[in-house]
Design brief:
- The structure is a single chain.
- By secondary structure, this protein is mainly β.
- It is built from 6 helices and 27 strands.
- The protein has helices spanning 24-27, 65-71, 73-77, 112-115, 150-158, 223-229; strands at 11-12, 14-22, 39-45, 47-48, 51-52, 54-55, 84-85, 88-89, 93-100, 106-108, 127-134, 139-144, 166-170, 176-179, 185-187, 191-198, 204-207, 243-244, 250-255, 260-266, 270-272, 279-285, 288-291, 297-299, 304-307, 314-318, 322-328.
- It is globular.
Length: 330
């Protein structure tokens, strides 16, 4: 595997505006937002159709993630990493920050087999959330209450609500919730979330709290599609219990067949280990420098970088107490 130009990659994020968004991507994470109070998502790492991020700075400045996949797949992803999907090769993961100023719709995502049958076909969507910030009393919905059947959920939706079917979870900053494909879920108001997911944008909306958009119209619902992909055997879902690793500064949050999510809490320099694939680093608290030759690349709170597989290990110099996520393939 060539190590040519093996350096951390930083990208220009894509911003998404939805009726549930706010301003905390700017006030909390220092994102350069325009005017308006409905900024909902900052797509930090994405290669999905027309949604393409562009490298910021360095020898590869201006290249999209899609271009890098085609030009140097092994250099970027690692040896033997398969990225061929129904829509062609793509970066397999999508990472974003969300400002949940209002409660999100109740939704569900298909798995890979179900996604392949869509028109156009897409990947499934398994995801994980890490709570960056939470107002007092913040909650989310993850999974159905014990014993809820397809018919009970369908009846509740027909009557104009489904809250009584949902498993409600109080959360605070630092909590992590794993949402496999097929899990009914909704993020509550007052949360800022870091989300890692498969590179899919397929969402089926069951319920939107009977609200209207700015034009006074209800948003589209996908009740039949949702009922077809929900895993009714899963039941309630709660925050994960972080697992210790060989390094006391690092804890394992999620290890599934789609990605491995780790959280580092550091105050002194470290060398991140070689995982055999690319890694995504995202700073949740504090700041750090990615040490390189000849220059270090700073990462502040809310900033993200991709470490190409060819980089292998990476020296990290935190600015005081710093928390960052590390995401790799399984």
């Amino acid at each position: 595997m060539s190590t040519e130009s093996a350096a951390p990659l930083r990208f220009e994020p894509l911003f998404r505006r939805y009726l549930w968004g706010g301003r905390r991507l700017a006030t909390l994470l220092n994102k350069p937002l325009g005017e308006g109070d409905d900024y909902a998502e900052s797509w930090e790492i994405v290669d999905h159709g027309a949604d393409q991020i562009v490298v910021r700075g360095g020898a590869l400045a201006g290249r999209t993630l899609q271009q890098l996949i085609h030009e140097r797949p092994e250099w970027l992803l690692g040896a033997g990493v398969e990225v061929e999907g129904a829509q062609g090769p793509r970066f397999p993961l999508l990472f974003k920050f969300l400002d949940c100023n209002h409660t999100l719709s109740v939704q569900v995502h298909p798995n890979d087999a179900q996604g392949a049958l869509l028109d156009p076909p897409d990947l499934g969507k398994t995801e994980a959330w890490v709570v960056v910030s939470a107002d007092a009393g913040s909650r989310l919905y993850a999974g159905l209450r014990d014993g809820v059947t397809r018919q009970q959920l369908a009846d509740a939706l027909a009557e104009g609500s489904c809250a009584e079917c949902l498993h409600e979870v109080p959360v605070s900053a630092g909590d992590c919730v794993f949402i496999p494909a097929g899990t009914v879920h909704a993020l509550g108001a007052g949360l800022v979330i870091a989300e890692i997911q498969q590179a899919s944008d397929t969402t089926f909306r069951l319920f939107d709290w009977n609200r209207l958009d700015k034009e006074g119209r209800p948003r589209d619902l996908h009740i039949e599609q949702s009922l077809a992909v929900i895993d009714f055997q899963r039941g309630p879902v709660g925050p994960v219990s972080p697992q210790a690793t060989d390094d006391p500064r690092c804890e394992l949050l999620v290890a599934c067949d789609k990605f491995v999510l780790r959280r580092w809490k550091v105050c002194e320099p470290l060398e991140t280990p070689d995982r055999g694939t690319f890694r995504i680093l995202a700073v949740l608290e504090g700041a750090l420098d990615l040490i390189g030759d000849p220059l270090a690349q700073p990462l502040a709170r809310g900033e993200t970088a991709v470490l190409p597989a060819a980089l292998r290990s990476q020296s990290v110099n935190p600015h005081g107490q710093t928390t960052f996520l590390e995401i790799a393939l399984a």
